[in-house]
Design a protein that fits this description.
Layout: H1 2-19, H2 21-24, H3 35-38, H4 42-46, E1 53-59, E2 64-65, E3 71-79, E4 88-94, H5 102-109, E5 122-129, E6 137-145, H6 147-150, E7 158-167, E8 173-183, E9 192-200, H7 212-218, H8 224-232, E10 238-241, H9 243-251, H10 258-269, E11 273-276, H11 284-289, H12 388-392, E12 401-402, H13 413-419, E13 424-428, E14 432-434, E15 443-445, E16 450-454, H14 456-466, H15 471-491, E17 498-502, H16 514-523, E18 527-529, H17 532-537, E19 541-545, H18 552-572, H19 579-592, H20 601-619, E20 622-624, E21 630-633, E22 636-645, E23 651-659, E24 664-666, E25 671-675, E26 679-689, E27 693-702, E28 708-720, H21 723-755, H22 789-796
Parallel strand pairs: 2-8, 9-10, 9-17, 9-18, 10-11, 12-13, 13-16, 15-19, 21-28
Antiparallel strand pairs: 1-3, 3-6, 4-5, 4-7, 7-8, 14-19, 15-16, 20-22, 22-26, 23-25, 23-27, 24-26, 27-28
Length: about 800
């Protein structure tokens, strides 16, 4: 039996060697990413660790082998355990069979598990590895295997498995690693065209605009914006820039940090393809899933403009004002307040902020807007102030591109994004189900809408290379990336595919090797770096969105922000200058909706609560002054109310009173009232009493568009309908008595005069007079009656 067992073992070994691991590996659907392919754990990147020990194999020359070139690599051992690792031996293996698909390559590089019995290929060489103390790293550099010993001459081109084991003195496996090389004898094929999208963003902001201190820090020598721009300069990357950064620098005018102005100049002169993200990189998926009919954009930046920062001689290049602190209102730049925009002002696409009306002059403290170009007071001509449109203007290569984070979109989001002006959408491949199982172009048809699918597998590999901790790790990651792209080209040599890889939003915090990675990609023989336009123009295949809804808590927070914003927008419809209240609230909405808040969930929850409360306060700046209960007497009367305007703009509202029952009837609905800024106006609402009793009256303010302003106010009204009739009779009877008494007195006087009464009884104090008047010669001088003035009065009567 022994000879039989030996024969069977030998035949099995020969079979494994001949067939090879790549051919036997289980194929995963090409063009889709398996869990193992998308894993980015450190253990997977550097090989399975045994007791905290990892082994890394780093091929030189980006893992590219050409005829006559020796295979050179580094071997690195990291000991993260608490125990020293004794000196050992590393055995290196090479499988000379090429990988047929990316799925097989991914299965090799990212196995679900490893063991000391795994087949790593044919034995290639061995090397001694010195002892590695706990917590330290040892590298055996520049290990060389002669080209003749590599033994790939005569083989077709493609990626090969390269693996290694670290063995102790007893021959037991301490660690294992898997890598790859690409054999390239110069065969003819169509290289894979690869576009790389890189987001340029900043950390979270509470109010949706960056101040001078933040921009100075971000654009310093080692600031995040400086590092991001440095990483992509001189590469073929496509940058997706947050327009908030550009506008915030311009808003600072002469107070902008020199480093920020320099950064802006470098971005504009970089020659990179670009497209705008949403303002503050707001979460487009969460906003649409929270109920937004269209993606919100900045309403106006005019209230943030400080005219003093744009005096004559300012050489900032891109004029724009400095942001005010929260709660303050900067002088308006609108020459005519009535023409200021209050609605969404877009530039025709979802990625750019809207442009408000051009504002050519500031407002003086007295509220009078000087003429365009005039400097108030001295008669000189000042340069025009920036406008919302000029602050947002940028020579974008592409517009209308919506880019949510990976695995966050649902099919219904596409309707919202299209309504917002989006012409294309970037989605991760795990968020899309393609019509074929092979690797297709990034461009897809999403039911009549253009989509760009970011290849998850390539994105993970680019991210791993960009985020490498050292040169050895980076070289290993680039070798894997090189092999993956080569396998794509080898799958269909005559059919060049155009693929897209889109980096995660947080790449800047862990991507010191991005520049080297992009340069290495561009130098691979089987890769051509292209722009986003090339990816969009490639032939499309059909695909559908696989719903990957956002976290429910995040959607609820976005819904709260949208509702808060709408309350203030409704108030703005009643104002002559709506941007005085709407601009800041909209920027705050976008700032808190930023993707950068994802890593600060507790802070976001707190900020959302504060924003909701402050928006309610702002929405109540135009309201009915709450007074005491009112008394209505009589059938018809009027209810006096006071409307208060606490904003810095004239407001026109329509007052409607709705009683809770039929005791009181309101005769006029929607009474127009215009209230100047920071003032009150009294308005009388005509009402009719139907019966006696108490009624609760709800008072609502609305704008001309029908939007309800603030929350309704309630007042209790005591109606006494019969009092008017009783009082009328009282007054009527009193009037009759007074009038009748007067007539009676007059008639009595005249009658007594005719009867010749002397008035001695003192009834009326009149002297009797003859019917034909006094004697012709007049009374005697000594007669006391001659000097009585009442005599003449009686005669006149």
């Amino acid at each position: 039996m022994r000879p039989l067992h030996a024969l069977l073992a030998a035949l099995t070994a020969v079979f494994v060697v001949v067939v090879g691991l790549p051919a036997a590996a289980t194929a995963a659907p090409s063009g889709s990413s398996s869990p193992s392919a998308s894993s980015s754990s450190a253990a997977a990147d550097e090989g399975e660790a045994v007791d905290g020990v990892t082994l890394t194999l780093s091929p030189a020359a980006d893992g590219v082998l050409v005829p006559g070139r020796d295979l050179t690599f580094d071997v690195t051992v990291r000991n993260a355990s608490d125990t020293d690792v004794a000196a050992g031996v590393a055995r290196v293996y090479l499988d000379r069979g090429a990988f047929a698909t990316r799925g097989k390559l991914a299965s090799w590089l990212r196995p679900d598990s490893t063991s000391d019995s795994d087949y790593l290929g044919s034995y290639l060489t061995r090397l001694d590895v010195p002892a590695v103390s706990a917590g330290s790293t040892q590298t055996v550099a520049s290990v060389t295997v002669a080209a003749a010993d590599v033994g790939l001459d005569g083989f077709t081109w493609g990626a090969r498995a390269l693996g290694a084991r670290l063995l102790d003195d007893d021959g037991e496996e301490v660690a294992q690693t898997r890598s790859s090389v690409v054999w390239f004898p110069g065969e003819s094929f169509q290289p894979t065209r690869l576009a790389v999208a890189v987001p340029i963003t900043t950390p979270e902001t509470e109010n949706g605009v960056l101040d001078a201190a933040a921009l100075g820090s971000y654009t310093s020598v080692d600031g995040t914006l400086t590092r991001q721009l440095r990483a992509v300069q001189g590469t073929g990357a496509v940058v997706a820039v947050d327009p908030m950064i550009i506008a915030s620098i311009r808003l600072l005018g002469s107070s902008a940090p020199p480093s920020a102005l320099s950064w802006l100049d470098q971005l504009q002169s970089s020659g990179l393809e670009s497209f705008p993200l949403t303002w503050a990189d707001a979460d487009v998926a969460a906003l649409s899933q929270a109920g937004a009919a269209s993606l919100p954009v900045p309403l106006s930046l005019d209230p943030l403009i400080d005219p003093s920062l744009f005096a004559e001689g300012d050489d900032t290049g891109s004029p724009a004002p400095a942001p005010t602190t929260e709660g303050e209102t900067a002088p308006s730049s609108a020459g005519d307040p009535s023409t200021s925009t209050g609605g969404d002002a877009g530039q025709g696409d979802a990625g750019q902020g809207g442009a408000g009306d051009d504002a050519g002059a500031g407002t003086d403290p007295g509220g009078q807007a000087p003429g365009a170009g005039e400097q108030p007071g001295d008669g000189t001509t000042a340069p025009p102030l920036p406008t919302t449109e000029s602050l947002l203007s940028w020579p974008w290569t592409h517009t209308g591109v919506v880019w949510p984070v990976d695995d966050s979109a649902v099919a219904a989001d596409l309707d919202v994004w299209t309504a917002s002006g989006a012409t294309s959408t970037i989605l991760s491949s795990s968020n899309v189900d393609g019509s074929t199982d092979s690797t297709e172009n990034a461009a897809v048809d999403l039911g009549g809408r253009t989509g760009l699918v970011s290849d998850d597998s390539l994105t993970a590999l680019v991210g791993q290379a960009a985020g490498a901790s050292d040169d050895a790790t980076w070289a290993a990651a680039v070798a894997e990336l090189s092999a993956s792209v080569a396998t794509v080209a080898r799958e269909r040599p005559s059919d060049a595919r155009t693929l897209l890889t889109a980096l995660d939003r947080d790449w800047a915090a862990q991507g010191p090797y991005l520049h080297q990675t992009l340069v290495a990609l561009a130098g691979l023989p089987w890769t051509t770096t292209v722009g986003l336009g090339d990816a969009l123009d490639a032939p499309q295949t059909g695909a559908v969105v696989v719903d990957r809804a956002e976290d429910a808590t995040r959607v609820t927070q976005m819904r709260t922000l949208l509702a808060a914003d709408q309350r203030v927008v409704d108030l703005g419809t009643a104002l002559e200058q709506p941007e005085t209240v709407t601009a800041a609230v909209r920027l705050r909405l976008l700032g808190l909706a930023s993707q950068s808040w994802r890593d600060n969930t507790e802070g976001l929850a707190s900020e959302v609560a504060v924003a909701d409360s402050e928006a309610s306060t702002t929405a109540g700046l135009v309201s009915v002054v709450r007074g005491s209960d009112q008394l209505i007497l009589g059938d018809r009367s009027s209810m006096p109310l006071y409307v208060e305007n606490g904003t810095n703009s004239t407001a026109t509202v329509y007052v409607t009173v709705r009683p809770s029952n039929s005791i009181l009837s309101v005769e006029e609905v929607g009474i127009p009232v215009t209230v100047q800024a920071q003032s009150q106006v009294r308005v009388r609402v005509p009402v009719q009493s139907v019966a006696n009793g108490t009624v609760s009256a709800s008072i609502t303010l609305a704008s001309a568009t029908g939007a309800v302003i603030g929350a309704p106010s309630t007042v209790q009204v005591n109606v006494q309908a019969g009092w008017e009739t009783a009082l009328t009779w009282v007054f009527a009877v009193g009037f009759v008595l007074l009038f009748g008494g007067g007539l009676y007195r007059t008639f009595r006087k005249r009658r007594r005069a005719r009867d010749g009464l002397d008035g001695a009884d003192g009834a009326d104090g009149l002297e009797p007079v003859a019917a034909d008047g006094p004697a012709a010669d007049g009374p005697a001088a000594s007669d006391p009656a001659a000097s009585d003035p009442t005599d003449g009065r009686a005669g006149r009567s």
